[in-house]
Design goal:
WH-like_DNA-bd_sf (chains A, B), 2 strands, WH_DNA-bd_sf (chains A, B), transcription regulation (chains A, B), DNA-binding, two-stranded antiparallel ribbon, Four Helix Bundle (Hemerythrin (Met), subunit A), homodimer, about 5% strand, 2 domains, DNA-binding (chains A, B), about 220 residues, Arc Repressor Mutant, subunit A, mainly alpha, elongated
Chain lengths: ~220, ~220
DNA sequence: CTCGTGGATACTGTATACAGTATTCAGCCT
DNA sequence: AGGCTGAATACTGTATACAGTATCCACGAG
């Protein structure tokens, strides 16, 4: 039999709405002042309120949206304090992935990472968003290589939220190129087999990102 | 004016259903063979399907339930492999919290932790579940003290899932008392101010838990 | 008896209808 | 004019109705 099973892939309308909302937030089509109302969205998408409601509640539970006091949902704001906490969480998650990769000691896997990094860092005339995506792609590759689904899930949660918070809009003014050049070094540290060093390298890398982020905020203020 | 604002606390039926389901899972009233069907549950709770559906989908998204192929939801199973990943994730999250606490160096906070630990460890004739709850209470206190809401959120996710997986049923046979005696030492390590040591202590503590867990599994097999 | 077929059944997903509540605004009273 | 009051409005939350699809079972053909 040459036919393949049709992976019917249980796609719900709510998922579609969710994805569209996330996309719209990333594309800055939804700003902090917009009010998202179930009925309005449903009318606009020409579907019923039920799946819209489901998507909105999901985004609320994820901390991306919160109920406005006058009804409707708004983008959640993030403070400088919370930004620090987000980076601390990143360090925990990604540092652990680095430890795991170091312990595993799989040279082929590391080589694959090197190739991907070189490909991904090769941006011509990148915008802030290109930078954000490239950076996430690279970091996510480390996580996938570590092969821990819970850590990966948390990674996605953190970066998803960063996206939603328009966290990287603030880096607009910062020196982007500075931040995208040292990922190969991370692989090198992992290759040495020193777990503590690998963790430190990742922590430092993320810390640098945080400082770059802060200078971005301060410069734009 | 002596009146306080009534915090109307937007409690949805879906939240209620969610809590009841979680409780029922913890109490082993819902087992791996039970099929949770929206209509049945709604009838039983005497409410409509809508909030029931919402709660079920939430639990599905959290990885606690998954759709049975013949309709309805079932408890998700966890493999030994996944169990390891769960403990690795714990180590990442709680280890980072330990680092933060160490860096903060707040003796009063540590003293509060010591008091709580002594109170919580003082169990008379504990069941496995008592142990689970006490252990979680103590570990959660460290997380709260660290004061990072994202790490705390992930902690809750991990432990919630552990609960759902009936992860600790396997410890039934293991030596419980062995595992609940060394939390004060964790505080002591934090108090030394050595961040690396604090992280290692937590990692080791969690690793021990994992091994205890495995012996529990193997003994009951 | 076995296998295939058709229909009943059991569920989910989506739409719509209904109810309750907070917010807003216009009109009245002072 | 300013502030209180009450109705209209704008939303959400919940219930119910409808549609589609996968599963299961019984029946008939080979």
């Amino acid at each position: 039999m040459a036919l393949h099973s049709i992976t019917t892939q249980r796609r719900r309308l709510a998922d579609e709405v969710y994805d569209q909302l996330v996309q719209a937030i990333m594309d800055r089509e939804i700003g902090p002042d917009d009010r998202l109302v179930q009925e309005k969205l449903a009318a606009e998408l020409d579907i019923s309120r039920t799946p819209v409601r489901e998507a909105l509640l999901r985004l609320e539970k994820e901390g991306v949206l919160h109920l406005a006091n006058s009804g409707g949902f708004r983008l959640a704001k993030i403070s400088e304090e919370e930004t620090l906490e987000l980076y601390q969480a990143r360090a925990a998650i990604e540092g652990q992935a680095a430890r795991i990769l170091t312990a595993r000691n799989d040279p082929e896997e590391l080589e694959r990472l090197r190739v991907l990094i070189r490909q991904t860092e090769d941006l011509k005339d990148p915008t802030t968003r290109d930078y954000f995506i490239a950076n996430r792609t690279i970091h996510r590759a480390f996580m996938e290589a570590a092969g821990n689904r819970f850590l990966l899930e948390m990674f996605d949660m953190i970066w998803g939220r960063a996206m939603a918070f328009h966290l990287f809009a603030a880096i607009e003014n910062a020196d982007i190129s500075k931040s995208l050049g040292n990922h190969i070094e991370l692989v090198d540290v992992i290759a040495t087999g020193d777990r503590g060093a690998a963790l430190e390298a990742f922590t430092d890398h993320i810390q640098e990102g945080f400082e770059l982020h802060l200078t971005g905020i301060r410069r734009s203020a």
